[in-house]
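FAQ
Q: What does a multi-component entry look like?
A: The components come first, one per line:
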Amino acid sequence: MVDQGGHTRRQILKAAACGAAGIVLGAPVRRLAAAPLQTAQGVNTLRLTDDLFVVKIAGEANVLAHTGANGVLLVDGGSAGAFDALMKAVSDLPGGGPVHTIFNTHWHPEQTGSNQQLGQAGKAIVAHENTRLWLTTDVTWPWNGRRFTRVPKIAQPNKTFYGTGQLDSGVRYGYIPDAAHTDGDLYVYFPQQNVLAVGDAVSGEGWPVVDWTTGGWIGGIVGGLQRLQTLANEDTRIVPARGPVLGLADLKAQYAMYATIHDRLTQLLNKGRGPGEAVAARPTQEFDAQMGNPDEFVRRAFESLWAYLSPDA
Ligand SMILES: [Zn+2]
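Then the predicted structure of the entire assembly, as tokens:
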């Protein structure tokens, strides 16, 4: 996930989350257990099973770590500045050790910051081919001017795929072609543990970033939520790039919410409205008390319809 507005937005989200008790969305029917571990300062590790952990470093996106006899598999790698802290946290895990494989759920630097060092060490970097392509080019977000510079070849994914795949360990992975967050989104499913990592295709905390410059769009958020439900059951623990571990009930609630918002935005688009008018129409209003200020999200989501649906876009 790429932070849009620093402090203010985070504080708003935090305030919104604190005020959200009792509202159905985000409060699943039953909380799926995850036990905190004692770890280093600034690192908060959740144990999902004996060999699967969510490593949360302060200010960083979630990293999922799977320990095994051959070392550790990661789903996402934090930002480059957190590399040392992440490697220490991973080697400190019960059964932890050096990383042998990392998945990039998408190209954003909050997920791919470990690639360079892991690539130099000869480790496998697995991603959808589109993620590799975005990392080979410079990207600028038109809405805030944020620039992303291409990464060296050694930091690019060295094992890419288009559809689905399976590792020798039985871990399965696949493309989320709906383009919920980018057009390179992937999931990783751990069948023995019944844990599904989904990156930023699902936001576990506040409104998502709709990165339409690299293919994400509001219709993809809806489609991705629908698709991911087919990979999960009532007991599946779903690990997004941000926020707490989710369950199937959360995906269902989010699907209903984003489908509603998608319909409203499409209607506004069909009436010839623009992004500012879409924000003013308050298409998210019944969700705002829980989700926080929607303006950035609505604007990006509306622009993403332009990017997908307008004939001359
Ligand atoms: Zn992201």
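Q: Is there any commentary attached?
A: Sometimes. For this entry: Residues 1-2, 106, 108, 181, 200 surround zinc ion (CB under 6 Å).
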